Design the sequence.
């Protein structure tokens, strides 16, 4: 298996090289040269396989050049050591809970998988690796936890000032050691832009061994496919004569891209819904066929506040920029903050289930789209505890736990690439 650029060039690299590089030489994203096909017998027997056996089968074709079967099994067992349950909410609606990891975010599996890959790769690397990542909330928490105290790896996390929850900021800034959180006076898109500038700064990269842990990095993206295999394993007996639809709260489109990859490997999911908040760049693209990035706006579902989603490039490449082909497999919806809070309020009153704001966006987008012959799963990407200031808008008697940020480790900087460059070189 080789990986190539979503913007064609001469690169054709191994999994290890793609992970260490982060971005391609021409500043694009890596994508599998071909998508492996799993046999129908795998899906017919999936309910009899362990979660780790399923993960190994799905990931092994992508990594076999650089990770032995024994190494891959160890990484999977160490990275995926918590449940990802599917629960029934009501009628044809189910939820996939991905917040049972150490930072209560769906990004835990990807961050833990990548950190363990790098710990294997670092042994043959004579330079320390610097992880540079931009976050709108949960990525920073998961990366900080997943890479904490990993030998030979330094982590720099850029997050927008006053645009992540106190709970998320605490998780990013409380560790110290090899983890450095950097508060940027700007938006997530500003953070992401500076990360891309650093990766395209060839003079800098001669001095700093740089890679990323956003979903732009394959080692973060590929393990997220596993969620949808495990969801299918749990829901299979409930499907009967219905088709499966999955709604994913979406910002940078990494989780949606991972699900689409799983579908192209043969996973029997009929279609996906990319559920957005007011940051509706991808929604507009599917309506008009014209991709126009926008400045991000602050919403109650802050982890999805992305105006220029990087992984759009992977979806566009996969479908040959054919809008009709893409629309056959993925749709999009945009949900307002007012609708989000109302959905949280209605759901707890009707079912007793407490949604986080991102899950509320996913649920509402799903139920607006679900057809009679379909069964739907929406994804809960983070634990409600991380967004208590929003929870109390829907559930006023929710018990708040104060989050203090005193004494935590962080740097602050302006929206200025030169400042970031100086930090990386220091």
Sequence:
């Amino acid at each position: 298996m080789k990986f190539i650029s979503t913007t064609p060039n001469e690169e054709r690299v191994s999994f290890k090289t793609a992970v260490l590089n982060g971005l391609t030489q021409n500043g694009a994203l890596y994508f599998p040269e071909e998508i492996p096909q799993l046999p129908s017998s795998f899906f017919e027997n999936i309910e009899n396989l362990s979660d780790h056996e399923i993960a190994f089968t799905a990931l092994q074709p992508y990594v076999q050049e650089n990770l032995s079967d024994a190494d891959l099994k160890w990484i999977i067992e160490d990275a995926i050591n918590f449940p990802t349950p599917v629960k029934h909410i009501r009628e044809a609606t189910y939820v996939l809970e991905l917040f049972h990891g150490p930072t209560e975010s769906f990004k835990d599996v990807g961050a833990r998988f990548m950190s363990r890959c790098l710990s294997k790769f670092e042994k043959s690397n004579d330079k320390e690796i610097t992880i540079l990542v931009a976050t709108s909330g949960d990525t920073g928490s998961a990366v900080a936890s997943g890479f904490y105290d990993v030998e030979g790896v330094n982590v720099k996390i850029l997050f927008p000032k006053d645009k992540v929850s106190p709970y998320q900021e605490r998780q990013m800034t409380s560790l110290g050691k090899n983890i450095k959180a950097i508060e940027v006076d700007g938006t997530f898109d500003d953070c992401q832009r500076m990360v891309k500038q650093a990766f395209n700064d060839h003079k800098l990269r001669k001095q700093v061994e740089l890679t990323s842990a956003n979903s732009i990095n394959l080692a973060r993206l590929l393990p997220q496919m596993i969620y949808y295999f495990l969801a299918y394993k749990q829901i299979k007996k409930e499907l009967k004569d219905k088709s499966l639809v999955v709604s994913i709260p979406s910002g940078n489109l990494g989780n949606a891209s991972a699900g689409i990859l799983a579908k192209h490997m043969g996973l029997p999911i009929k279609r996906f819904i990319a559920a957005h908040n007011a940051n509706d760049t991808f929604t507009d693209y599917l309506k008009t066929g014209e991709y126009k990035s926008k400045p991000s706006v602050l919403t109650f579902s802050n982890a999805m506040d992305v105006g220029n989603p990087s992984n759009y490039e992977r979806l566009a490449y996969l479908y040959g920029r054919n809008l009709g082909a893409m629309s056959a497999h993925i749709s999009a919806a945009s949900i307002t903050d007012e609708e989000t809070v109302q959905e949280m309020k209605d759901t707890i009153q009707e079912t007793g289930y407490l949604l986080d704001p991102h899950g509320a966006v996913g649920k509402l987008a799903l139920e607006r789209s679900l057809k009679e012959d379909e069964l739907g799963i929406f994804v809960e990407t983070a634990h409600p505890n991380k967004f208590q200031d929003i929870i109390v808008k829907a559930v006023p008697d929710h018990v708040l736990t104060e989050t203090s940020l005193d004494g935590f480790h962080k740097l602050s900087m302006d929206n200025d690439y030169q400042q970031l460059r100086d930090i990386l070189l220091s």
Q: What stands out?
A: The mean pLDDT is 92. The CA atoms of residues 105 and 382 lie 4 Å apart.
